[in-house]
Specification:
Blueprint: H1 3-17, H2 22-25, H3 28-57, H4 63-84, H5 88-108, H6 120-127, H7 136-156, H8 178-202, H9 204-208, H10 212-220, H11 224-235
Helix pairs in contact: 3-4, 3-8, 3-10, 4-5, 5-6, 5-7, 5-8, 7-8
Length: 241
């Protein structure tokens, strides 16, 4: 191994050895972003725990569908981790994956063939006709998720007007960037609010069967606007849940 390569490897080793997030965590804005994303994620994880528990008592969804809901949770948490260390491109790509797995979890409960579908275009096409997305509120969530997916795809295709934060040298290793951090936070919160809305809209009986404490926590992770429009639709008989 040449001296230059050895020296560069030593620099990389030192970087990894000294890697520390304490500076980022001391940044109030970083901490606010982290807490806001964690709150939304906790709501989803609580839903998943209740879904698994209630599944034992009554088959709400298939086991494979639950597996994909779990995979969605994994993608969501990994995207936060990538964001936390400043690896923004990876964070956005993982968030994009979360959308794909979430849609497959929904669609696969009725159509197991969707798990083998490779065309994301086809998955969205099928989703647009699914009962979860047919009423007015559901259509709005579908539109939001579809739009977010398209924006996240820009990172995968290296669009020129998107800052990729990719790693080309040691100087470009993950680090905090206010603009990219803020953009990801915005994407994440919009996506999770839509996901939680879809859950409340279509798993209302499951939410109502939660322990009162869990139900209260779950609802606290959603925006007032989202809860209001769904509850009003239910009360007015627009939705049958």
């Amino acid at each position: 191994m040449s001296r230059e390569i050895s020296q560069d490897a030593a620099v990389l080793t030192t970087y990894l050895k000294d890697f520390d997030l304490s500076e980022s965590i001391s940044n109030p804005q970083y901490l606010n972003y982290l807490k806001s994303m964690h709150k939304k994620s906790y709501g989803y994880l609580l839903f998943l725990a209740e879904l698994e528990q209630q599944y034992k008592e009554i088959s709400l969804v298939t086991e494979l569908s639950i597996t994909y809901y779990k995979e969605t949770a994994s993608d969501l948490m990994q995207s936060i981790f990538c964001w936390s260390v400043g690896s923004y491109k990876t964070a956005n790509l993982t968030l994009r994956s979360a959308i794909e797995t979430f849609l497959k979890a929904i669609l696969g409960n009725d159509n197991a063939g969707i798990y083998d579908e490779k065309s994301v275009y086809k998955i969205f096409e099928i989703a647009s006709q699914h009962s979860f997305f047919l009423n007015g509120i559901g259509k709005n969530y579908y539109t939001t998720i579809h739009a977010l997916y398209k924006e996240l795809c820009m990172f995968a295709h290296s669009a020129r007007n998107v800052e990729l934060g990719s790693i080309a040298s040691l100087n470009l290793l993950p680090r905090y960037d206010h603009k990219m951090s803020s953009n990801f936070n915005s994407f994440y919160l919009k996506l999770l609010d839509s996901i939680l809305g879809i859950i409340l809209l279509n798993y209302n009986s499951l939410i109502n069967n939660m322990h009162p404490l869990n139900k209260g926590i779950f609802l606290s992770t959603m925006t007032l606007k989202t809860k209001k429009e769904i509850f009003e639709a239910i009360e007015n008989g627009i939705l049958i849940v």
